[in-house]
TrEMBL record:
Record-linked PANTHER family: HTH-TYPE TRANSCRIPTIONAL REGULATOR CMTR, TRANSCRIPTIONAL REGULATOR-RELATED
Upper lineage: Bacteria, Bacillati, Actinomycetota, Actinomycetes, Micrococcales
InterPro entries per record: ArsR-like_HTH, HTH_ArsR_DNA-bd_dom, HTH_Metal-responsive_Reg, WH-like_DNA-bd_sf, WH_DNA-bd_sf
Alphabetized NCBIfam families for the sequence: HTH_metalloreg
Pfam families (UniProt xref): HTH_5
Name of the protein described by the UniProt record: Metalloregulator ArsR/SmtB family transcription factor
The HTH arsR-type domain, residue ranges: 6-100
Length: 111
């Protein structure tokens, strides 16, 4: 693989992560899944969105390769697709808050 190819691959990977994090609901889903798998209905209730909205966001995150569905009888839960994502999200959040600690005020980003 040439450095140009690797660069394009890396750019695409980061763009997928950026797309996933660009929506507050998707970002919240990723943060909620850091510790354990969760059911869509539980995520929807916690985040105050409809089940249909949650389903759409989970489909987007699956398409980005960031979450996966785990069959559990007639239901499915969701978890992060790779064990490296949880510490990476923790670190990304930590660095973001260090760089701009007053960026987000709880009502939305003030950047």
């Amino acid at each position: 693989m040439t450095s140009a190819t690797a660069s394009l691959t890396h750019t695409a990977a980061l763009a997928r992560l950026g797309h996933a994090l660009s929506d507050p609901t998707r970002a919240g889903i990723l943060l909620a899944l850091r510790d354990s798998a969760r059911y869509p209905a539980e995520l929807a209730e916690t985040m105050g969105v409809s089940r249909q909205v949650m389903s759409n966001h989970l489909a987007c995150l699956r398409g980005c390769g960031l979450v996966e569905s785990v069959p559990d009888g007639r239901r499915s839960s969701y978890r992060l697709a790779d064990e490296h994502l949880s510490p990476a999200l923790d670190e990304f959040l930590r660095v973001t808050l260090i760089v701009e600690p007053d960026c987000c005020d709880g009502e939305g980003c003030t950047c």
